[in-house]
Design a protein that fits this description.
The chain is of the alpha+beta class. The chain folds into three domains: about 110 residues, Immunoglobulin-like; about 110 residues, no CATH class; about 130 residues, Glutaredoxin (3-Layer(aba) Sandwich). Helix 2 packs antiparallel against helix 3, helix 5 runs antiparallel to helix 6 and helix 7 runs parallel beside helix 10. It starts with a helix and ends with a helix.
Length: about 375
């Protein structure tokens, strides 16, 4: 009798284990016989292998579990063929051919379905944007600046529509595990208050995913460098290897902390605007403190000379690991912070005419 009870307990334990949330990925990829497939995810900028298996006549299966739905890559090893999808604890089927693995049919993942639904909604705008981009490149090749300006304006209007579509999806889908991906994408254009409100509206479980946890950490950093806050001090080396602190530059009526890099196209396009403001208002109390996210000192120094950036420049040549960029929660460049003579942040991310107008307003209004 004791043995029967013992076996019954074991059976119950195994039954409980088998019902734990887990995923089963079943694939049928034509043309992939005897190929090794790897399932990977991106973590801290690196691809981490979750699982691997050998296909037999194009058929294979992978099993495991994930805490939250997450975007992964399925790659045929030693080839360039891969597809990406949202992995979650469900039965997921992948059907396709090796040569067009990127276009494989994926079913069984609700989060993947949510993403596809959004992509389909966004496609008309995305197609329109691509056509405008091609037109811009053609106009640029012909040196047609008027056409370039017109297309740029139209493209900005499309970008606004795309942003509106993302915001609408986020608002209407607070319990979708695809929503955090959109929030992360939009967060580069949002201030701390907007990010906080967006996160607060999420379903409790969705708000626990790593993407949102990382955003919350970034949010705290953003709050520390928001308008009205004292700019945190930092020290980096100039082009000659001499340490220069932010605090040593504070005292001008206005100081612009300008985050940029030689490799950043939008930064190089913005540089002439900063030069214009500097040349016109430097003698009236405007100064710039350039912080580069470069890795190559030669490229950094050359860009300074080529763009005629005659103010103080510093960098630790650590790319996105730049200490000042992390301190100021900078996740895209160009980015800037305008400080008054006390070192208080009075404006952020002023571009083109907005920078000129703000500086002119403050300095000419202070006479």
């Amino acid at each position: 009798m004791k043995k029967v009870i013992y076996l019954s307990v074991l059976a119950a334990i195994f039954a409980a284990c088998s019902t734990e949330p887990h995923y089963v990925v079943k694939a049928n990829i034509k043309g992939s016989d005897s190929l090794t497939f790897v399932l990977q995810k991106r973590d801290a900028g690196k691809l981490i292998t979750i699982d691997s298996t050998l296909s037999k006549e194009g058929v294979f299966k992978m099993e495991g579990s994930v805490e939250f739905p997450e975007q992964v890559y399925l790659t045929a090893l030693n080839t360039r063929n891969r597809t990406t999808f949202f992995l979650e604890n469900s039965e997921i089927t992948i059907t396709g051919t090796l040569d067009s693995l990127f276009d494989a049919e994926i079913t069984g993942s609700k989060t993947q379905d949510d993403m596809k639904s959004f992509v389909d909604l966004n496609k008309p705008l995305s197609d329109k944007y691509q056509i405008l981009l091609q037109g811009y490149q053609a106009a640029r090749a012909q040196g047609d600046t008027a056409k370039m300006s017109q297309i740029k304006k139209e493209a900005m209007d499309v970008e606004k529509e795309m942003t509106g579509l993302q915001k609408e999806f986020i608002k209407n889908n607070p319990s979708s595990y695809f929503t955090p991906s959109l929030i992360r994408s939009l967060s580069y254009e949002m201030n701390s208050e907007e990010i906080e409100q967006t996160i607060a509206a999420l379903d409790t479980n969705v708000a626990k995913v790593p993407v949102i946890k990382d955003l919350k950490t970034r949010l705290e950093a953003m709050k520390a460098v928001s308008v009205g806050k004292k700019a945190p001090d930092f020290t980096l080396n100039d082009v000659n290897g001499n340490p220069v602190s932010l605090s040593s530059k504070i005292g001008s009526k206005l100081l612009l902390i300008d985050f940029w890099a030689a490799w950043c196209g939008p930064c190089r396009q913005e540089n002439p605007n900063v030069v214009k403001v500097y040349n016109e208002f430097h003698k009236k109390g405007f100064d710039v403190f350039g912080v580069s996210l470069d890795q190559s000192k030669d490229d950094w120094v050359k860009a300074i000379a080529d763009d005629k950036l005659t103010w103080t420049h510093v960098s630790d040549l650590q790319y996105w690991n730049n200490a000042a960029a992390k301190l100021y929660a900078v996740n895209s460049i160009p980015a800037n912070f305008l400080l008054d003579e006390t070192g208080t942040i009075i404006a952020t991310n002023l571009r083109e005419e907005a920078l000129y107008n703000k500086v002119k307003e403050i300095l000419e209004g202070s006479k």
